[in-house]
Design a protein that fits this description.
The chain is of the alpha+beta class. The protein has helices at residues 89-101, 143-146, 155-164, 170-183, 201-205; strands at 11-19, 23-31, 37-45, 48-53, 59-67, 72-76, 79-81, 103-115, 124-135, 149-154, 189-190. Residues 185-194 have a biased composition (Low complexity).
């Protein structure tokens, strides 16, 4: 057996189970440290972006959106899937901010990258901070977006909601805490910071 931390978890074989519109499911056979192999189910994802949009009064824009797997509405950040493998992430974030809440911003920075559930999916969400907000026309993209409730909360209240369990979306929780850290003096990364863990496998299937 190799030294702990030195084993290469090589994929021996792989088979597709389901290829859908926004996710794929495959089963990989992976070489394990003891010399055998194990099966790992992997949900492939396009990757997504989310936005902490802060106004001049440090109020953050949240949306109340129905999430079918949980069966109820959640408070979340404006967010959405990347449209294509070559979409610039901050431009995807700008698009989602306009579509979901009718806002644009003149200052953008990167807050955090969030691996949604790395035990079974390659989904990673990049969360941006958007400041110097302005109003733009909102272009509704479907029935779900027409049902969104949009509300502004003081950032401190949104953080309290996250700590109280009233906000449970992972990207929202991480983004709000990161935004609070930035407002307290932590310097965020630039909007075009490298994103080495951006998902690519599922997007490549669409080419």
């Amino acid at each position: 057996m190799t030294e702990a931390g030195a084993h290469e978890f090589r994929t021996v074989s792989s088979r597709d189970v389901h290829i859908g519109r926004v996710v794929g499911l495959r089963v990989d056979e992976v070489a394990m440290p003891g010399g055998g192999t194990a099966l790992r189910e992997v949900v492939e994802h396009l990757g997504a972006v989310a936005v902490v949009a802060l106004d001049d009064d440090d109020q953050v824009v949240l949306i109340h959106q129905y999430r079918h797997p949980l069966g109820h509405r959640l408070w979340e950040l404006p967010a959405g899937l990347l449209d294509s493998p070559d979409e610039i992430p901050v431009e995807g974030a700008r698009r989602e901010l306009a579509e979901e809440v009718g806002l644009d911003a003149s200052r953008w920075s990167t807050l955090v990258d969030v691996a949604a559930s790395p035990g079974f999916t390659d989904e990673v969400v990049r969360v941006f901070l958007a400041e110097d907000l302005s109003t733009v026309d909102r272009d509704l993209q479907g029935d779900e977006e027409a049902d969104l409730v949009v509300k502004r909360f003081p950032l401190t209240e949104a953080v309290r909601m996250a700590l109280a369990g009233d906000i449970i979306n992972g990207a929202a929780v991480a983004g709000l805490l990161a935004a609070q850290a930035v407002k307290s003096g932590t310097t965020p990364r630039p909007a075009d910071a490298p994103w080495p863990d951006r998902p690519h496998t599922f997007a490549a299937r669409q080419n």
